[in-house]
Fold:
Amino acid sequence: MEYAFSTPRTLLRGLEREDCAIMADFYNNRELLEGFLFPHEPVFPATKAEVEGLVDYFKQGNWFALCVEHRETHKPIGFAAIKPYMVNRVSFISICLSPEFWGHGYGTEVMNTLLEISFDYFNMRKACLCVCSFNERAIRSYEKVGFEVEGRLREVVYRNGRYFDLVWMGLTKNDHRNTAASA
Ligand SMILES: CC(C)(COP(=O)(O)OP(=O)(O)OC[C@H]1O[C@@H](n2cnc3c(N)ncnc32)[C@H](O)[C@@H]1OP(=O)(O)O)[C@@H](O)C(=O)NCCC(=O)NCCS
Structure:
């Protein structure tokens, strides 16, 4: 199989319904659910059928969803999605990897390719994302590719009995070029 997009250690392809098996694991991991879900989504395990519905959810919402495969094993290790807002030329990015791959640079690799797709193929001029304030690993990973904190919605995320901020991060194509050039 040919892969249009890849990173040094991963291969990216369109998300298939069969990939939902790994997503079902994600949706039953409490730490992952706490950090990953949008604030309006309850932290609660999803059924396999509900997780399979995510593929349709992405399609209906005009998200371009990708399965992240490990380059050596071809095992799915996560998923990512880009929603390009054509008029504003701003994309919204989401990424989720299997816990065993956290903290080893995979997220940074994949995010760089998501930015390449956003800027060089979808012709976006800016990429954005939201992250819960306690998700320090994710924030650090996004900062490494050049994202900056642009604002905070204070105490809109309720997790494990406490309120947290939702952090809005953004990166323009120009700033990304400069970050890449100086790396
Ligand atoms: C967010 C995510 C994609 C990042 O990918 P990753 O592969 O774990 O990130 P990286 O290894 O590329 O970078 C993580 C950085 O955070 C640092 N880090 C790790 N744990 C940390 C912690 N608890 N606190 C602060 N920094 C931490 C790492 O040291 C690394 O920085 P460094 O390279 O300067 O040392 C991944 O962790 C993930 O899928 N998490 C679960 C889903 C999720 O939360 N998605 C984000 C929703 S907005």
